[in-house]
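**Reference record**
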Amino acid sequence: MFTGIIEEVGQIERVEKRGNSASITIKCNKVLEGTKVGDSIAVNGICLTVTNIHKNSYETDVMPETMRRSSLEKIKKGDRINLERALKLEERIRWTHGFRTY
């Protein structure tokens, strides 16, 4: 589950197109904290699975259907993207309104 709250703005480091699909490498830091291969990270609101993790980046694959139906079809090296990790079951969602936290 995702909240829609952006945790970090990452940058596309590499795009390797493979026919109708692609493998992308995303440069980032915060969203890598506690992340494991197989976890989901939303990239511009599109849920993608982490396939490999490096020191300051991670890799993910984009399947043909996702490429066709999303803005990821046009991504290129250097593009800035919004990143959000999926919520874990035991986490609370904290809503802030002004100076009050609910």
Summary: The chain has one domain: 8-101. Helices lie at 64-69. Residues 8-101 form a domain with the Elongation Factor Tu (Ef-tu); domain 3 fold (CATH 2.40.30.20). The chain has one helix and eight strands.
